[in-house]
Write a structure and sequence with these properties.
By secondary structure, the chain is of the alpha+beta class. It is 31% helix and 27% strand. The chain contains ten helices and 20 strands. Strands 1, 2, 9, 10, 11, 12, 19 and 20 form an eight-stranded mixed beta sheet that branches. Strands 13, 15, 16, 17 and 18 form a five-stranded antiparallel beta sheet that branches. The protein has a four-stranded mixed beta sheet with strand order 6-7-5-14.
């Protein structure tokens, strides 16, 4: 579809970013608008994505886990939206005929010193109202669930599963287009935005790098920028956001002849001293089993290998004081993660704490993904979801809203996040509308 002429109001709300959160938000906004035919003679909503397809980065490269909400601080947005989002995700997949595997998860204490933290995690999950939690207090109970697992105790999470989140995101976009009359504009990268009177003007590069630049006007815009959320905010009236620092996760894949060693998800007990969860075992919808990931600083925000380098991304990170504070605190952890990136045997030794029979010859290199870490100047990672509005003039409505941070479990929580963001947007934007299911 040809872009609208400069100065013409194209529609009521533009969604920017075609990951699973952006797709879910666009779908929810369009449903609340009542489908196409928005005010000003334009469409109700449009979704702009810089890549040639949706779900190209974090969504299409994540582990595929449907999380249950056991890890997150009680009362946090993460906890509330994950528990609700998990239920909504399963209901949505059932309604759309999208396959999933509710295979469960074991959070395993590999040694006795971890049992206290495991019990605290179990109680945290109960406080979060996570259904289907069982405490397994002996090695025998652990092996009854996972015969090859060496844990001394575990928490079994019955509602954890796996799904193809990329497929789910594409289904959200189909709903947005077919059921709600939304317009999807691929290879449309939003470079900036400026509120102007009764709308917001987006500066858009069309057609990828070197493409033509155009201006598009909407009444409002919602940014779900993922790996580029801070830059989008800085260029679109979002204020100064925490810097996004990219960390790559590298997986191994269990060879078919060793696939019998693991049945479902096996996760470690989180160590509060280190910033990432640690290695785990994740079944996939295609029957494969992923092992890992590690967490290494990526040399590009879209750096899926050591050879992917962006000088701009590196410069932004290396001049940021928060990065050096993080590095000063966790330098030993970072070196170990990088070492295991190059030495497969070292990564396998980490996994052997849970599956002692695992051997180097049982694994092969697997896929990689990049995780957007929102990092404060104090060197601490922003742990919860963060939303921010801007562009208001006087008593008038806000013109933009930014999803500044949507870390894991964002995919699991996407439908619940969409409810919150759409409600917030309609209040800030002063748009009439309601939830279509109410």
């Amino acid at each position: 579809m040809a872009p609208g002429a400069a100065g013409a109001l194209r529609g009521r709300v533009a969604g920017v970013g075609g990951g699973i959160v952006g797709a879910a938000v666009a779908r929810e906004v369009a449903r609340r608008l009542g489908g196409g035919g928005g005010g000003g003679g334009g469409l109700g909503a449009a979704l702009l994505e810089k890549e040639a397809g949706v779900a190209a980065h974090q969504t299409g490269r994540n582990s595929g886990v449907v999380h249950c909400g056991v890890y997150y601080k009680t009362g946090s947005l993460k906890a509330r939206l994950c528990v609700r989002g998990s239920r909504l995700a399963y209901e949505y997949c059932d309604a759309r005929g999208i396959p999933y595997n509710r295979c469960g998860k074991l959070i395993v204490a590999a040694e006795a010193s971890e049992v206290g933290r495991l019990r605290a995690l179990f109680e945290n999950g109960r406080a979060n109202k996570v259904p289907g939690l069982t405490f397994l207090g002996s090695p025998q109970e652990v092996r009854a669930r996972e015969p090859h697992c060496a844990g001394v105790a575990a928490v079994h999470c019955a509602t954890t599963g796996v799904v193809d989140w990329g497929r789910v995101a594409r289904a959200f976009v189909e709903d947005f287009e077919q059921d709600s009359g939304g317009e999807v504009l691929l290879r449309h990268e939003v470079l900036g935005a400026e509120s102007q009177g009764d709308g917001v003007e987006l500066r858009v590069q069309v057609g990828g790098a070197g493409g033509r630049e155009e201006r598009m006007r909407f009444e409002h815009a919602i940014f779900c920028g993922g790996l580029h959320s801070d830059r989008r905010a800085a260029a679109a009236e979002g204020g100064r956001a925490p810097l996004v620092v990219p960390f790559r996760g590298e997986y191994l894949v269990l060879k078919p002849e060793a696939r019998h060693l693991v049945k479902g998800n096996i996760y470690p007990v989180p160590n509060p001293i280190v910033p990432f969860l640690g290695v785990h075992f994740t079944p996939r919808m295609d029957g494969s089993m992923w092992l890992g990931p590690n967490a290494v600083y990526a040399l590009s925000r879209e750096g899926y290998s050591w050879g992917d380098i962006s000088l701009r991304d590196m410069w932004e990170t290396l001049r940021y004081p928060g990065f050096w504070r993080l590095a000063a605190t966790h330098w030993a952890f970072g070196l170990d993660e990088a070492y295991r990136s190059f030495v497969t045997a070292a990564q396998v030794r980490k996994m052997q704490a849970y599956i002692p029979e695992l051997r180097v010859e049982h694994v092969e290199p697997g896929p990689t993904g990049v995780r957007a870490i929102a990092l404060g100047e104090d060197g601490k990672m922003v742990d919860d979801f963060v939303f921010e509005s801007g562009g208001a003039r006087g008593d008038g409505p806000a013109r933009v809203l930014h999803v500044l941070n949507a870390p894991s479990p964002a995919a699991t929580s996407s439908l619940a996040i969409a409810e919150v963001v759409a409600k917030e947007a309609f209040e800030k934007f002063q748009i009439g509308g309601s939830h279509p299911d109410n």
